[in-house]
Amino acid sequence: MENDRPRLEDLWPCFQGIIPAALSTCAQDGTPNITFISQIYYVDASHVAISHQFFNKTHRNVRENPSACAMMLDPRTLRAYRLYLRYQHSESSGVLFDSMSLQLQAIASHAGMTDVFRLRAADVYEVLQIDGVEGFTRFPPVPVSERPSRLFVDQDLESLRLMTERLNRSEALSDLLDRSLQLLDELFGFHHAMILLADEPQAKLFTIASRGYPEHGVGSEIGIGEGLIGMAARARRALRLSAIDHSLRYARAARDRAQATAGLEAVCREIPLPGLAGAAGQIAVPLVIRGRLIGMLAVESAEPLAFMCREDTILTIVATQLATGIDHLSRDTEESSPSAAVKSPAARAARRPACRRTFCFFHRDDCVFVDGEYLIRNVPGRILWRLLTRQRDEGRSEFTNRELRMDSWLGLPDIKDNLESRLILLRKRMEQKCPEVRLVTRGRGRFALEADVTIELAEKKET
């Protein structure tokens, strides 16, 4: 029936690369060639694209004889579709090429084969006709009216409105981060998600909040340009992968590189990136404001078809709201008064219980260990060590963001220092590893270092 005739836009699951497609071409002398391709890319309602990497025979054939035929399977229903194609042109630059190249680079980064998997061109084909192939599998055909839909619906708009209202009520950056992940879980079913903030001078992203993982991974890092998240960050555009093999994990690749270059000691200073065991789908969306990268929103799922156009649209809208909120709440207002109340050494000693915590600072990489276990490094590590030594030497317990910004030893950048986010990262790592020692907010731009234990300090100036 005409109403049941498949349309290209209805075949989104077929374009996710879960089941390889078969592409048939024919040389000018009539010699046929059939090859399996990992993925066919949707371009618009009447065009698809195929990556030109290794298929030299196919590439030559369609330039001699532009007719081609592709067979695709819907991974949900195993229904087969035959696409009659006509080769039109190749693109080696532009939006389509960049999008296909970015996805290919992300997969190559997972496998450590960036130098091998390179897109030469995007071959664009016009779709002349689509036929549903009956009897290709033993499963009965599924009517269009009963096929799963991934379209944007009114309920999504209502949920987005509700989320926007609740995020706008956030008065602190930590509240915004935690609330956004909670709402993504409760309103949209994104159960495994993380937010990473950008440290552009170091060309890294660090995890500031996560939800749905056994290990929070706060403080874990990934380089801009590494894996799915890093590639999407470098390109400043959303990127999603479906049906990925769980062995090609970006966290494992990063740790392997660290071990190869600096040995096991470097790995012990790494916090594993949060990851869902057996993740089959991932999507990473950049948080960008006025062209500046704020961070990344990354979501995973065990379902290979969890992220389609609908999810891409929802997360892009949320990412825009989140980027604006992070930028606004990172501009904390400073107190004009000097840092408050200094408690006497006698008063502090009277409150100390017998329990001890030993913090050790490694000058080589600004790394802090607590009781022999890795805690934090880089700028947050320097901040913690400054607070601990000033509490020991000056008897201070309260500090201001202003004085940290003026402290040249910390090495904060002059513009956009991300101090507030670094303090949140430090606070969360201390809650996980040494909850008896904590940073407590005392108002906007002011905080206190509190301890329920005796603190001992040690330093190692490594060569």
What's a concise summary of this model?
The protein folds into 3 domains: 2-144, Pnp Oxidase, Chain A (Roll); 154-329, Beta-Lactamase (2-Layer Sandwich), CATH 3.30.450.40; 345-460, Arc Repressor Mutant, subunit A (Orthogonal Bundle), CATH 1.10.10. Helices cover 32% and strands 29% of the residues. The protein has helices at 56-64, 95-111, 154-168, 173-188, 227-235, 250-262, 264-268, 309-329, 345-351, 378-394, 401-406, 419-433; strands spanning 21-26, 32-37, 41-44, 47-52, 67-73, 80-91, 121-133, 192-199, 204-211, 221-223, 239-242, 281-289, 292-301, 356-362, 367-370, 373-376, 398-400, 437-441, 446-451, 454-460.
Kindly describe this structure.
This protein has 463 residues and is an alpha+beta fold. It folds into three domains: 2-144, Electron Transport, Fmn-binding Protein, Chain A (Pnp Oxidase, Chain A, Roll); 154-329, GAF domain (Beta-Lactamase, 2-Layer Sandwich), CATH 3.30.450; 345-460, Orthogonal Bundle (Arc Repressor Mutant, subunit A). It has helices at 56-64, 95-111, 154-168, 173-188, 227-235, 250-262, 264-268, 309-329, 345-351, 378-394, 401-406, 419-433, and strands spanning 21-26, 32-37, 41-44, 47-52, 67-73, 80-91, 121-133, 192-199, 204-211, 221-223, 239-242, 281-289, 292-301, 356-362, 367-370, 373-376, 398-400, 437-441, 446-451, 454-460. A hairpin with a 4-residue loop joins strand 8 (192-199) and strand 9 (204-211). Helix 2 packs antiparallel against helix 5 (227-235) and helix 10 (378-394) packs across helix 12. The N and C termini lie far apart (77 Å). 34% of the residues are buried.
